[in-house]
Design a protein that fits this description.
By secondary structure, the chain is α/β, with parallel strands linked by helices. 40% of the residues lie in helices and 15% in strands. The chain folds into two domains: 2-228 and 411-430, Rossmann fold; 231-409, Glycogen Phosphorylase B (Rossmann fold, 3-Layer(aba) Sandwich), CATH 3.40.50. The protein has 16 helices and 13 strands. The longest helix is centred in the last third of the chain and has 19 residues, at 412-430.
Length: 431
């Protein structure tokens, strides 16, 4: 059994499906000859944790933890969501001077991210481990991209093969636009990124477009292994959408002002006037962090037909998938939406429910929907097309529902096998 050290910030993972990636890979890696050891902070500074995701992981999995200090601990809780990556952002017009100052500090003093203070203590701690034990591979997964800096330090000291796993872009992330970064800070960030790409043995992207970007940097090092779904989660999955006369539209995840579904609101209002009896059957259910202004707009349209469930753990999300007639997918309007694939798309497809998506039809997500025939995607503001698309999904759901065979390539056990083949090749080439 070969040994692999996985450096990750999120363990147990947060609600975001992208960070479930290595939790599930760790589950299946032993079946393909790899024994994982997880290294993660003891006291990470993020709000939404979902311990239910660990229930199907063997208790024998080795997890090493050390304490981390983060500047977010100094920020009052009321302001953290405006300073931290992954939470709903305020529009520029609504930001206070204090919020702008915090974001400037975040962008110009903490590069690549506020977890950078954990880098050197982690290199010291893990160096002691690597001096005592032989590991065949190191994998670092980000964001936060400081995890790659830890792995880079270990690679230089021990010359162990290292894979940099990018769940999201690095310097191309649109969130940096919120941080008022100076040209000097941006250059520093890009130099760190280039060092990581130069020093790692291989890099893996979760999306095709980011893979194309990395391909131009080094086609030999580049691999694309997407996120996916766990087939075991669907063993007892049952379609409950037919148990009443409701037409349930469900969205799970963050719905911020940067993903305000204005076209959907207009389409629902048009349906209210053109076919009130059909409109009254629609129930819009939301799970996750929804911007107050977006929530207010939806309430004005839907009234009591809007159900705000707030945060749900992973198990409860599956109950909502079973009830839903249509699953809503909101993709970032910026370039990151074109290049990044929301992790939930794979579970949506595996649920065999039609997807109504909003974003660039030419995005990676749009390509997947087209390939699997799993739904429809429209520009956010195209209310007329959204209206017609919504009617199509209601009237002919099977026509826009992905067959299980078409999404089999995104099953996590299969993806873990693909990853293990990459790791094995790196070992073979080293020898």
């Amino acid at each position: 059994m070969k040994k692999i050290l996985i450096i990750t910030y999120y363990w147990p993972p947060s609600a975001g499906s992208g960070v479930q990636r290595w939790l599930k890979f760790a589950k299946y890696l032993p079946e393909f000859g790899w024994e994982p050891t997880i290294y993660t902070p003891e006291n990470p500074e993020f709000k939404l944790k979902d311990s239910s995701l660990q229930d199907d992981i063997s208790g024998e999995l080795r997890v090493l933890r050390t304490k981390i200090w983060e500047p977010y601990s100094l920020i009052p809780s009321s302001n953290k969501k405006n300073a931290n990556i992954g939470f709903t952002k305020s529009s520029a017009a609504k930001k206070t001077f204090k919020q702008k100052s915090l974001q400037w500090i975040r962008g110009n003093l903490f590069i690549p991210d506020p977890r950078v203070f954990w880098v050197q203590p982690s290199i010291k701690y893990l160096s002691q481990l690597l001096e005592q034990e032989d590991f065949d591979m190191i994998v670092s997964t980000g964001p936060p991209h400081s995890m790659h800096m830890i792995a880079m330090g270990l690679k230089k000291k021990f010359n162990i093969p290292w894979v940099a796993d990018f769940r999201d872009p690095f310097s191309q992330m649109d969130v940096y636009d919120e941080y008022y970064m100076s040209a000097r800070s941006r250059t520093k960030l890009e130099k760190i990124e280039q060092k990581i790409l130069d020093n790692c043995t291989a890099f893996v992207s979760t999306s095709f477009s980011i893979g194309d970007f990395l391909l131009n940097i080094d086609p030999v090092k580049m691999h694309v292994i997407t996120n996916g779904y766990d087939a075991e989660n669907f063993k007892d999955f049952k379609d409950k959408s037919h148990l009443d006369d409701k037409i349930v539209l469900f969205h799970g995840g963050t719905m911020g002002e940067e993903r305000n579904p204005l076209g959907l609101i207009d389409a629902l209002n048009a349906l209210k006037h053109s076919n009130s009896s059909l409109f009254k059957r629609i129930e819009l259910r939301l799970a996750g962090n929804t911007s107050p202004s977006v929530l207010q707009s939806l309430k004005e349209s839907m009234g009591s037909q809007l159900v705000d469930l707030s945060y749900l753990n992973h198990d409860s999300l599956f109950e909502e998938y079973q009830k839903a007639n249509i699953l809503l997918l909101l993709i970032h309007k910026t370039d990151i939406g074109r290049t990044c694939i929301p992790g939930k798309i794979y579970e949506y497809l595996a649920a065999n429910k039609p997807i109504l998506a909003f974003g660039d039809p030419q995005s990676d997500s749009g390509v997947i929907l087209e390939k699997t025939k799993g739904g429809l995607i429209f520009d956010y503001e195209d209310a007329s097309s959204i209206h017609q698309g919504l009617l199509k999904l209601i009237q002919e759901p099977k026509k826009y529902t992905a067959e299980r065979e078409s999404v089999a390539e995104f099953e996590r056990k299969s993806l873990t096998e693909d990853y293990s083949l990459v790791l094995n090749d790196l070992i073979k080439n080293r020898n």
